[in-house]
Write a structure and sequence with these properties.
Layout (H helix, E strand, L loop, with lengths): L1 H56 L5 H24 L9 H35 L4
Length: about 130
C-alpha cells in the first residue's frame, strides 16, 4: 500500500512539474512568435529608412516630414534592439510564478513593440508612396 501511495504521489508531482513546464514553454513561445513577426518587418523598416534618407538628401518639400518618419523608424528599431538586449529567455533561478509573471510582462512589451513597428513600417511606406518614392 505504501508503495502504491508513494508511486501515486510521485506521479502527481511529475505531472504537476510537466504541466508547469508546458505553461512556461507556451508563454515563451507566444513571446517569441511576436518577436519573429517583428523581425520579419525589420527588413522593410530598414529599406524605408534608406528611401527616407535619400528623400531628405534631395532637399525636397517633403523633407521635414521625411525627417519625422526617419525619427519614428529609428525609434521603433531602437526599441526592438533594446528589448532583445534585455530579454532573458532562460530565466534561470526563477520560480514558475516568477517566470510566468516575467513572460506576461514581456508579452505586453513585445505587443507594444509590434504596434510601434507596424506604425513605423506602414506609415513610412505610405508616406513614401505618397511622394512617389519606390
Amino acid at each position: 500500500m505504501k508503495k502504491v501511495l508513494f508511486t501515486t504521489i510521485c506521479m502527481l508531482f511529475l505531472c504537476a512539474c510537466t504541466d508547469k513546464k508546458a505553461q512556461e514553454k507556451a508563454a515563451l513561445d507566444s513571446v517569441i512568435n511576436v518577436h519573429d513577426k517583428i523581425m520579419g518587418e525589420d527588413e522593410q523598416l530598414m529599406k524605408n529608412k534608406l528611401l527616407l534618407d535619400s528623400l531628405v538628401s534631395k532637399n525636397t518639400p517633403a523633407k521635414d516630414s521625411a525627417v519625422a518618419w526617419i525619427s519614428r523608424v529609428v525609434l521603433a528599431d531602437s526599441a526592438m534592439s533594446t528589448w532583445m538586449h534585455n530579454f532573458d529567455p532562460d530565466m534561470k533561478g526563477k520560480s514558475h510564478d516568477q517566470k510566468m509573471g516575467y513572460l506576461g510582462q514581456q508579452k505586453k512589451l513585445i505587443k507594444r513593440l509590434d504596434t510601434q513597428m507596424n506604425v513605423a513600417v506602414t506609415g513610412s511606406r505610405d508616406f513614401l508612396r505618397k511622394n512617389h518614392i519606390k
